[in-house]
Amino acid sequence: MQDTAPRPRPRWWTELLLILVVYAAYTGGRLLVRGGEATAVEHGLAILRVEKLLYLNAEHPLNRLFTAHSWIGIPADFAYASLHYVVTPAILVWLFRRRTVRYRAARTWLMLSTLLGLIGFTLMPTCPPRLLEAGHGFVDTMAQYSAYGWWGAEASAPRGLGGFTNQYAAMPSLHVGWALWCGVMLWRHGRTPLMKSLGVAYPLLTTFVVMGTANHYFLDAVAGAAVMGIGLALTRPFMRLTNRLRDRFLPRSGGVKSLVAGGVVSAGCETSEGERIPGQRTRTSTSAGASAGDGDSGSESAGEGTPAAAR
User: Could you give the CA distance from residue 64 to residue 57 in angstroms, rounded to a whole number?
Assistant: First the structure.
């Protein structure tokens, strides 16, 4: 018979450790796979040419808007530098506490997609628009408004730490990918119209922000969404594999628990509801005692196991 016992609830400390390990691998991997500047610039210009050919070049007008109006550009820079570090973990915690049944699949989807993004950075180092020569028409809003935030002119990292980031990891955009994951979680598991509206608005807003700040091309955003789609497709097979491995090397005690829950503790002895210590009655003796009484199915005492006719 197939074991249908529910799997144990994830423990918060093991989940936190797992997330930290994956994020450390992701961050370290980005630093180790830094591509050459010439190759990254070539890839960036190729993306820009394809977008112009397909009339998808929305980065220039958005970047001019963010550059000309500080009341748009400064909040956009704050959003780019912080929201993915705040919103994504917050939704993970919310799922863990409020939607536990859905948490494991959601966490697996996010982590698989993040690791796939690392493969993209490895295979295609890409120069973001803000690092192209000025003649290409982009302004680095993070540098323009750096006096208003904690970031420096090099990257969205805290001032002075730009050298510890891979600035050529633009393809795919995991800012957009993670925002899409957050939006799907809010849409699927949120119970109010406000949460569902935020689920739609957040990934769209993030897409505009990454392009307007000249940190990503539109095709980077498309690639970020594609990576999340591949990660989603791999989630179920990956979970089946991990379940098999867990069941093989860490077998569960569901069979023992089911025997205890059914009242059979050992050698055919039974317990009555509410008893802490079994009365050591076998099924045969219990049936015989019931037939020796006055025919009332409730005539046997639950505490001592003595037929009522003997009292």
Answer: 13
Of 222, 229, 48, nearest in space to 135 by CA: 48
| Residue pLDDT, tens place only, 55-77 | 988 999 999 999 999 999 999 99
Residue corresponding to tokens 């190759």: 39
Give the separation between CA 251 and CA 271, rounded to whole angstroms: 27
Identify the three-state secondary structure at position 256.
helix
DSSP strand pairing (281-282 vs 269-270): antiparallel
Q: Please, which residues have CB within 8 angstroms of residue 231's CB and are 6 or more apart in sequence?
A: 109, 110, 112, 113, 114, 116
Q: Find the range with the poorest average confidence among 1-5, 37-41, 200-204.
A: 1-5
Distance in angstroms (rounded) separating the CA atoms of residues 57 and 219? 9
Helices 193-212 and 70-98, interaxial angle, to 10°? 140
Q: What is the pTM of this model?
A: 0.73
Task: State how far the Cα of 225 lies from the Cα of 113, in Å rounded to an integer.
Answer: 10
Q: Give the whole-angstrom CA distance, residue 133 versus residue 127.
A: 11
Q: What is the maximum span of the chain, computed from C-alpha positions, in angstroms?
A: 104
Q: What is the pLDDT of residues 124-133, one digit of tens each?
A: 889 999 999 9
- CB–CB of 212/139 below 8 Å? no
68 vs 61: CA distance, rounded Å: 11
